[in-house]
């Protein structure tokens, strides 16, 4: 009998993240016999541009997609309104189509699933993705001096514990995050329903890089073939230490004059140059390009080294950077900072990168040989080692095992 899964996401499918970390999993699980109703929140501009593409993909894999419009303003009240809309749609979907499991991505969707479990007895999965309330505070999005944000934070921390207690399965992105959760409630109970599934990469899409493809990609991007390319995949957003990334590149550029910086991002080139100019980097050494989900792998072909620095904090103990698995799937060695999720241990175990404890010049000088040795890593070996940890097929199989366990 096919399993009827209602998947709830506050992230949109017209966002690259939604396509990478939600839709790609659901496609794999649909091929394994699961019937999905996918309810997501879409931003109006991206929805107008990409809705036909997502609609076609969902139709191909028999996924019933119900997009709801994301509300941005006013703060807090708009989110309350979205949660209300989600609850209303979820009840309608349960009554019309039936449901065996509600799969919740993160906290806001779990609010409505917890109510549905209490009302209808439908099991739900708390796929937590990160310590949401703490991320909002540590990312300077919620100021706890504001009584409204303080109340919302306390409310969600209370609900967080209820999700852990009453969910039928818990998914953590990291071992570090899982260990923290075990201290919040009965350790044995948490362990009995906990699965660790890091952000996976589609190894069919992110193929092994090659010298031939690298030359073509660099030519298309206007990058000289003899360059040494450091690539950052992502935005200049809340959690990414973009100035530190550029600081590192300016240090690296002094050692390797042919170095170029490639940024695959929706950010505008002018925004990036505002930062690179502070470090007296030539605009000719900086390349900024936007890529759709299906294009990212091709753009990464230009790379010799991947880089990202993330603000380390308590909430980031539960984070698994999507870009890590995708770069390693391409066979690209990675340089990052320590203190984020399981990244330090992963890079050490897989022998495919370095997690720096510091980013200041004296420390970089000490690590210079190790950093430049990354450029000599064997791409095929990096990809082979990374597959054991980040393969999308393996992640989908773990989710299927969770579904089977819940349904007996």
Number of strands: 13
Shape: globular
Q: Provide a count of the helices.
A: 18
- Stretches where pLDDT falls below 50 for ≥5 residues? none
Q: Largest sheet, if any? A: 7 strands, parallel
Strand order of the largest sheet: 3-2-1-4-5-6-7
- The helical percent reads 40-55%
**Global Rg:** 22 Å
Describe the structure.
- With 408 residues, the protein is of the alpha/beta class.
- The protein contains 18 helices and 13 strands.
- The chain has helices spanning 16-30, 44-60, 77-97, 106-120, 132-138, 147-166, 175-182, 187-192, 211-221, 242-255, 269-276, 296-300, 322-329, 343-350, 361-366, 368-373, 379-390, 392-407; strands spanning 3-9, 34-42, 64-69, 101-105, 124-127, 169-172, 194-196, 228-233, 259-264, 286-289, 305-307, 334-337, 353-356.
- The protein has a 7-stranded parallel β-sheet, with helices on both faces. It has a 6-stranded parallel β-sheet with strand order 10-9-8-11-12-13, with helices on both faces.
- The longest helix has 21 residues, at 77-97.
Main traits of this protein?
408 residues, alpha/beta, 7-stranded parallel β-sheet, 6-stranded parallel β-sheet, 18 helices
What's a quick, concise take on this entry?
With 408 residues, the chain is of the alpha/beta class. It has 18 helices and 13 strands.
Topology:
Blueprint: E1 3-9, H1 16-30, E2 34-42, H2 44-60, E3 64-69, H3 77-97, E4 101-105, H4 106-120, E5 124-127, H5 132-138, H6 147-166, E6 169-172, H7 175-182, H8 187-192, E7 194-196, H9 211-221, E8 228-233, H10 242-255, E9 259-264, H11 269-276, E10 286-289, H12 296-300, E11 305-307, H13 322-329, E12 334-337, H14 343-350, E13 353-356, H15 361-366, H16 368-373, H17 379-390, H18 392-407
Parallel strand pairs: 1-2, 1-4, 2-3, 4-5, 5-6, 6-7, 8-9, 8-11, 9-10, 11-12, 12-13
Helix pairs in contact: 1-18, 3-4, 4-6, 13-17
């Amino acid at each position: 009998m096919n399993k009827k899964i209602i998947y709830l996401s506050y992230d949109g499918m017209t966002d690259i993240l939604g396509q990478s970390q939600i839709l790609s999993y659901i496609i794999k699980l649909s091929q394994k016999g699961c019937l999905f109703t996918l309810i997501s929140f879409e931003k109006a501009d991206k929805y107008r541009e990409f809705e036909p593409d997502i609609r076609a993909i969902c139709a191909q894999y028999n996924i019933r997609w119900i997009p709801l419009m994301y509300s941005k303003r006013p703060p807090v009240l708009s989110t309350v309104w979205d949660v209300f809309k989600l609850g209303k749609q979820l009840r309608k979907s349960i009554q019309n189509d039936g449901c065996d499991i509600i799969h919740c991505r993160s906290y806001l969707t779990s609010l409505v699933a917890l109510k549905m479990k209490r009302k209808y007895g439908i099991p739900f999965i708390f796929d937590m993705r990160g310590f949401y309330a703490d991320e909002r505070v540590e990312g300077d999005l919620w100021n706890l001096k504001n009584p409204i944000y303080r109340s919302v934070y306390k409310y969600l921390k209370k609900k967080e514990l209820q999700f852990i207690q009453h969910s039928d399965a818990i998914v953590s992105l990291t071992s570090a995050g899982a260990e923290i959760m075990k201290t919040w409630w009965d350790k044995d109970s948490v362990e009995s329903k906990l699965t660790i599934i890091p952000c996976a990469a589609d190894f069919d899409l992110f193929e092994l890089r090659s010298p031939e493809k690298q030359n073509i990609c660099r030519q298309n991007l206007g990058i000289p073939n003899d360059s040494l390319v450091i690539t950052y995949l992502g935005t200049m957003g809340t959690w990414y230490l973009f100035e530190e990334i550029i600081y590192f590149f300016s240090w690296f550029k002094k050692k390797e004059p042919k170095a170029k910086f490639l940024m695959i991002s929706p950010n505008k080139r002018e925004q990036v140059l505002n930062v690179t100019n502070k470090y007296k980097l030539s605009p000719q050494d900086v390349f900024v390009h936007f890529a759709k989900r299906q294009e990212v792998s091709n753009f990464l072909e230009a790379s010799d080294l991947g880089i990202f620095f993330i603000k380390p904090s308590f909430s980031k103990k539960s984070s698994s950077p999507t870009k890590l698995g995708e770069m390693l799937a391409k066979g690209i060695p990675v340089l990052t900072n320590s203190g984020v999720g399981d990244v330090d241990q992963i890079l050490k175990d897989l022998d495919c990168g370095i997690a720096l404890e510091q980013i200041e010049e004296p420390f970089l000088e000490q690590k210079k040989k190790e950093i430049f040795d990354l450029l000599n890593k064997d791409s095929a070996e990096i990809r082979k080692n990374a597959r054991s940890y980040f393969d999308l097929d393996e992640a989908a199989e773990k989710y299927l095992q969770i579904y089977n366990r819940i349904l007996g």
